[in-house]
Structure formats: structure tokens, C-alpha cells
Amino acid sequence: MTRIACLMTDNMDELLLRPWLLHHGYLFGFESLYLIDHDYTSQAVQDVLRDFAALGCNVMSGRTANELSNHLLAEGGVDVVFALPCTDFLALLGSNGITCSRSAINDEVARIADAKELVEVQWALENWPGYLDAFRYVQVPFWISARGAEVGAKPGTTTLLSIRLRYPPLLAQGASYGLLAEEKIGATEAYYGDQRGYAAATLRYRGIWRQLAAMMDVGELERQWQVGRPANLLEDRVVWDLDAMPFSPGAYLAANPDLTTNSNLDPFAHFVRAGIFEGRRYNVSDEAAAKMFTIFERLRRVTRDGVAGYVGLANVCHAARCLAEGEEVLRQGVIQYGETAKLVFEFALIALYRQNHSDSIDRWERFIALAPDRPEGYRLLATTCRQVQDFARAEAVLGAGLARFPNDIGMLISRIDLAADCADRSRVKQLWFQLLQKFPDDREVRRRAGGIATFLGAWDQEQTSDVKVEEYRGPVVVDMADHEIEVALARLGFSDTSEMRNFFLQFQSLGSSCEFGLVQRRYGAEPISLLRWNSINPTNLIRGLETRFEALDEPGNLDLTVVRREFILFDRKYSMAMHTFTMEGAVERDKFLAQQVKRAKYLCGNLLADLEEGEKLFVYIDETEQPHSEIARLGRAIRSYGNSTLLYVRVTSDVAKTGKVELGGEGLIFGYISRPGRLSSGEWNIDFQNWEAVCVAGAKLWKSVAHNDLTAPPARLSNSAAST
Amino acid sequence: MTTESEIYTALSEIFSDIFNRDDIILAPELTAADVEGWDSFRQIEIIIACEERFGVKFRTKDLDTLSSLGRLVNLIVEKTG
To answer: Which distant-in-sequence residues (6+ apart) come within 8 Å of A197 by Cβ?
Structure first.
């Protein structure tokens, strides 16, 4: 029988310690568990250690994991040893999916012992913060050593992996899920954004928690984290409101005794900083954002490092998704301390996060000038250029960077990614084999091997398979049947389709997605506007509005790219992607581009004129849960043209709100719909009746208040009582 | 002021350029549904060409009401009047 030693290395979190011991004790027996007691002061930890020592666990002091591991293999009669932190729970990826089956895991450990191998467990399934049942694969390698393993031999592979709990509040949410003996994860269940297959970094995985969660003190977790249970477990994210997060410095100090030994660390600052790492967000209201800034003013004083203070504050803004504020913080930092490499790096990075690519590129260039000895500047400049599809420039940047840092693996990999972007398979292959030859043992290179191989394989499949790549089938059809039109007319109170069409022509989409364009189409309205079939994020929309979309038609700014065989007009300055509904090959490319540039310029002029006239109700759909400050900024940008009003539409699970609108500020109306218009598979799933209600109520509210009288309703959305 | 007849003559050239066809019979009741390929993109080309040709500027509100060629001609008459 294989003798196993399972060591816990660190992180004796009092909430996770007991389930960790129960889980691994169940798998291997308590006598196989080894814990190193680092003189923990927490009474709860000490209680658990005592209880489990009584059950047979080996609790030791004054040892290190490496030394203990070597000792157990050499002299302890142990066949296999491995060490896991308190956050990681061993599992196995079997042929039918992930399992925590005792026999399956023990069989695999016995196989390693018999083979006398040193194996590397490469992956963990880590919680994906913000999603209740979503996990991502992360590389958190640990080693399993068998007695007699040949020193220096190539590590073996294993189907073992771990489930890593990085986000304690999710455990409470997951309490009602069941951990099944075996749960299948197929390729179709792996997502990364809209992608599937090898590129998937996030796995939605239901049902894994019953066994683990049952071992946790869920009540304590819930009490500690004050988790509300969203109605929609799949899509809703957990949001913590700072205002609802009581803070008692005394209690916090008592719970974190290490703080009392560090007089420089403000307890509240520690609390907030810890919260950021745990994914709490503070962007749910202006008050919360203001409070966050106050906190970090305190942090800045505590850290006593001006530049670090600005960078830290900007990072917090980023974590809170207040990117505009973060950028402003860094701008102020640059004014205060000049262009230090650290500030410019963050300044460039936040512009990249905001998809403000042109500023980001300028700042990366500045960073490279300031810190020529740092390769990441070249890497990130190339990444930014790739994002705006300026592949020639990305190639030039990487060429310059590699001339200076020929062995920078990140840049070498980025060059492969660039070749993949350009669908240049032979170059991907050539560069990849060069890289493999040069760095055969590099961990990052090995990590990328699967992805590259799959890319090449997928390419082969696409080129040789009988299955054709999905063709573009033209605009989505959302028209109503005759009987549906009758019903809609009756529901909306219009006498004929012309009246209904004219009603929906009052609105103008400001992009985000094509959803509202499809809504208008359903009701017979086909307005011609710049942003109707356009995807643009709020940050870039604001920038575009603030600059009157300057230089949109500048040479080189607009270009055609092909997505699913359709020509898409791509704008580099504002990262807009516009449908052309024209298939590749159906037109002559250069001539078509010239037409599209002319068209975009024309429609841009019309949009600005419409904004000045204020006779349209402008619609924007929030697909990314923007903070209130950003929404207000968008409203101000629109308002700067004249008396135009923004109908800002959000998805809510609150049934009392769906289909309703409320005033949100000067020239700003909030509307609520029940679900996102698009499924994660990319198919449309628009709730038209909800949209009808929002449009009717929105138009009514818009017209009932004189445009210039839409003043200052309650600042906080949740407190507003102006529902219609 | 441009007469309707002059407008139709000019439109005939514009349509011929845009659709690459000489056989489209322009009449007030002609709509996008009657001409293959007359989609919203062609519509914008027509509008831009009209603006350049007649020295007028259409507003989005005007474009929303363009239900037929006759309506376009009327608009041009109004704007050049």
C-alpha cells in the first residue's frame, strides 16, 4: 500500500483549515497529513490543530516544508510526498471530468509512486472573482515526489490538479451547490469572453461545492462578508457597497494581531487593501467613490511615498473600475512628480485598460524613452498596437525590442501572437520552433505549448476540414409577423405601423452594441446613423464626444478588417468597430474602404448635428456595469452639445425595475431591461417587450420635462423615486 | 431654385453611378424596395451625392422621412428654394 504524506505549507486560514483537513483526511487518512505550526496566534487555528492532532494528524513545529518532505522520503518510510497550501484542494481530471473521488485520486498517486516519478501538477481551477460558479485555469504548479525518483530526470505528468479557493465569499454563495462525484467539463462549457476551446481561461463549473462547502462555516462567512444572494446566479456579480461594510478598527485589530506590530499601517487602509485583493468593489455610488478617495488619501499619508501613493490610488481606482478617475490620479501624479518611469508606466497601462489606444501608445513610447532597459515597454506597446490592428507597427516595435533584448521570452511569444493575429501560420510555426529550440525548458514557453499547438491544429482543421467556417449571413432578422404587429400596435396604442415607426425614429443609438438598432428594426424604424451598428465602449464614446470625433477620417485611422467573412470598419482612434454588412470578396477592398470612410465622416457630422439639435433621445446600453461617475461623464459629454438627453439602459434582475425609467441627472434618464440582449454564445436574445416599455416610458419622461429642466434628481440611482 | 425636372435628370446620373445601371426608371413612387441593392449604405451614398450636387444639407430628421424618391425630390426642392 502506498504511504502518502500530504503537507500543508502555509495559509492557515481559520475558515479553510478545517475543510482542508477534512477533505485531504478523507482522501488519504488523517495520519497522512502533516501540518507545520508556525506559532499561530489565532485561537481558532490552535483549536483546529489540537482537534485534528487528536484525530491523528501530524502537527509539527520548527520544520520547513522542504526539509520535512526530504526527511519523510528518505527516512520516514513515505512513498509519495506533496505539499499544498490551505487554499488548494486536490482533485483529478478524469476522462469524465473533474472528480474528487478518493479511489481515483489514490490510484493516480499510487501510479506516481510505482513509477518512482517526480511529477509536476501544473494547473489549478481557481475561482473567478465576481462569478459565482465560474472558475479559471491558472498555472500554480506544485510537485509530487516519489521515493526513488531520479534526480534531474524530466518531470512526469499527471491528471491531478487542485481546486483553489481564492475568493472566500464565493464559498458562501456556493453552499447550495452540490459536489458530485464526477462532473463533466466539456469544451463547450469552457468560455473566455465569447470564445470557446483552448483559448478558454474561464470555466463555468456547477456543482462542485457541496462537499467542500458543507465543511465550511458558511454562516460565519456570510456574516463576515455580508454577501447578498443575487437572483441570477450565472450572470450577476457580487457587489459590495463600502457604505454597507461596517468597519470597527478595534475589532479589526483584534482579528489581525499582526497589525498591532506594524505602527505604519493604518487598520482601515489594511482592510481596504485586503478588500481589493479579494475583489471588493467600491464603485456602486458617488458617495462610495468619494469615500474610496478619502481612504487613499489616508493611505498616501501612511505610505509616505508620493509616487507610490498616486500609483496605489490609481490601482485602487482600477480595481474599483473607476478608470477615468485612476487616469486623472496619474495625471496629477505626473504634474506633481514629473514623468517618472513608474508613473508613466501606470499612465500608459490605464489608458490601455480604458482602450484609449492612441494615448496609451504615446505613453508607452515615453516609457521606453524613460526606461530603455525595461523590455515590458516594448511588449506592451506592441500589445497596444496589436489591439488597434496596427500589425506593421507592432512588428516594428517588437523588432526594435528584440534587437535590444534578444532573449526576452515575453517579446518572442508576443511576436508569435502577432503572427497568429495575422493568420500567418507558417510564421507562427517557424517562430515557435525557434523559441522551443532556444528555451526548451522555460516554464512560460511550455505553458504556451498547448495553445500554440491548438492554434496550428485548428488552422489545419479550418484549411482541410469539410466543415466550413461560419459564413456571414447578413443582418439579423427581427421582423414581426403580421399578427405580432397587430398585437404590438394594440399594446403600444399606435393606430398604424407608420406611427409606430415614427415613434422609434425618435431614438438614436449611441453604440455599445447593435441591440438597440435591432429593436428599432423590429418596429420598422431604420434610421441612418453612425453608431447604430457600431460597437464602442463608454470611455471611447466619451472621448469621441468630447473631441467631436476629431480625426475620424484621418488617413490610416479607418481600416477594414474581416470578421466571419464580413468587412468590419475599424477605427483606431476610438476603437470603434462598425458593421458594413458586406462580405469579403463581394466588393473591391480599396474602393469600398474609401466609400466607408466617406460614409463614416458624413454620419459623424449628422450625429454631431443631432446632438446639437437635441431632438433625439440618445440611447446607450450599459454592457459593462459602468460606475456612476463614468455615466455622469457621458451625460455631461452629450449635454455639452446642447439640450440632448441620454437614455442610459442597464440590465437588472430587480423585476420591479424592469421596463421602467427614472431620472438620473441633468439630461440623463436611466432605463432598465431584464436581460442582456445577447447570449454568451453570441446569439441575440432581446427582450423586446421590455424595450417597448423602456422606450415608451423614456420618451414620456423625456417630453414631460422640458429639456433644460431635467435638473438634479437624486444622485444615487438606488434612492431615486422618479420611476415611471 | 432647381426644378423637379432638373432634379430627376441629376438623380438619374447619380443612380446610374451608384447602382451601375441605366435601366432604373425614376418616378416619385420609387422606393428602396423596388431597386435591388438599395440598402441603407446605398441610401447614404445617394444622400451624399445629392448634397454635393445640389449644395444642400439634409438633417437626420429629413432622412427619417425619406420614404420614396418623390419625397427626396420634394426635400431638394424645399432646400434649394
So the answer is: A187, A190, A454, A458
Q: Closest by alpha carbon to A47, among A32, A61, A37, A62?
A: A37
Domain A229-464 part of CATH 1.10.630.10: no
pTM: 0.56
Q: How far is B26 from chain A (nearest CA, A)?
A: 22
Is the minimum CB–CB distance between A508 and chain B shorter than 8 Å?
yes
Q: State the sign of the Cα–Cα–Cα–Cα dihedral A181, A210, A188, A196.
A: negative
Q: Do B63 and A528 touch (CB under 8 A)?
A: yes
Contact B48 A582 (CB under 8 A): no
pLDDT at A177 over 50: no
Distance CA A492, CA A543 (A): 36
Which chain A positions have a beta carbon within 8 Å of B64's beta carbon?
Answer: 502, 505, 527
Nine cell digits for residue A571: 477605427
B70: containing domain: 4-80
Q: Is A599 on the interface with B (CB under 8 A)?
A: yes
Q: Read off the pLDDT of residues A533-577 as tens digits, 9 standing for 90 and up.
A: 888 888 889 989 999 999 898 888 898 887 777 888 988 888 888
Domain boundaries, chain A: 4-222, 229-464, 482-531+597-719
Mean pLDDT of chain A, nearest integer: 74
CA distance B25 to chain A (A): 24
Per-residue pLDDT of A5-52, as tens digits, reads 999 876 556 667 777 887 788 788 888 999 987 766 677 788 888 888
Provide the number of structural domains found in chain B: 1
Distance from CA of A226 to the nearest CA of B (A): 50
pLDDT at A109: 95
Question: The CATH number of A4-222 is which of 3.90.550, 3.40.390, 3.40.50, 1.10.1740?
Answer: 3.90.550
Answer yes or no: are the C-beta atoms of A59 and A27 closer than 8 Å: no
Q: Residue A80 in 3-state DSSP?
A: strand
Residues 15-74 (B) with a CB less than 8 A from some CB of A: 39-41, 43-45, 47-48, 59-61, 63-64
SS3 of A167-182: the string is: CHHHHHHHHHCCCCCE
In degrees and rounded to multiples of 5, residue A205 shows phi and psi of -140, 110
Chain B touched by A622 (CB under 8 Å): no
Interface test mutation site (partner B, options A498, A602, A608, A617, max chain B beta carbons within 10 A): A602
Chain B residues with CB-CB distance to A527 below 8 A: 60, 63-64
The 3-state secondary structure of A371-416 reads: CCCCCHHHHHHHHHHHHCCCHHHHHHHHHHHHHHCCCCHHHHHHHH
**CA–CA gap between residue B46 and residue A646 (Å, rounded):** 30
The candidate with the shortest Cα–Cα distance to A712, out of A618, A612, A596, A632, is: A632
What's the farthest any 2 CA atoms get from each other in chain B? 32
| Alpha-carbon span A417 to A428, nearest angstrom | 8
H or E element, residue A125: strand A118-127
Q: Determine the distance in angstroms separating the CA of A240 from the nearest CA of chain B, rounded to an integer.
A: 43
